[in-house]
Amino acid sequence: MNIYGVALLALSYLLGQWLGEALGYFIGINANVGGVGFAMMILMLLKEWFIKNNRLTHEMESGMDFWSKLYIPVVIAMAASLNVKSAVSAGTLALAAGSIPVLVCFLVFPILVKNFSPKSNGNPS
């Protein structure tokens, strides 16, 4: 059912927006910094958690796949509407806001791969 995908997408979107607002507040600007990126990461982590705990049904997987495929075009449309001139004029802050999440992802990705890799069933293939 697609409703499961909508519920998880909504949950990840709300958490991501909250984290983006909190990050913006902590850096000292009145803006959402990386909220959509946080939401995408939360959605991926939720899906992997469901897979790891054998709670992902076919209906849930198809719903999540459907909405995650729609999510990327929405993100691109949102990014296209941003004021690029003001982001570039921010200089160092814009570079930090772009490079810090990338570096964090590079550090976190190996941990995620290690912890969420599928367990072998003992049969050599």
Q: Can you summarize this structure?
A:
This is Malonate transporter subunit MadL. With 125 residues, the protein is an all-alpha fold. It has a domain at 2-82.
Q: What is the distance, rounded to the nearest whole angstrom, between the alpha carbons of the first and last residues?
A: 33 Å
DSSP E strands, number? 0
pLDDT < 50 stretches: none
Residues in helix, %: over 70%
Largest sheet: none
Organism: Shivajiella indica
Transmembrane segments: 26-46, 90-113
Keywords: Membrane, Transmembrane, Transmembrane helix
Pfam families: MadL
Describe the protein.
The chain is mainly α and 125 residues long. It has a domain at 2-82. Helix content is 78%, strand content 0%. The chain is built from five helices and no strands. Helix 1 packs across helix 2 (35-52), helix 1 (2-27) packs across helix 3 (58-80) and helix 2 packs antiparallel against helix 3. The longest helix has 26 residues, at 2-27.
Supply the key terms.
mainly alpha; transmembrane; 125 residues; 5 helices; Malonate transporter subunit MadL; Maln_transptMadL; 0% strand; transmembrane helix
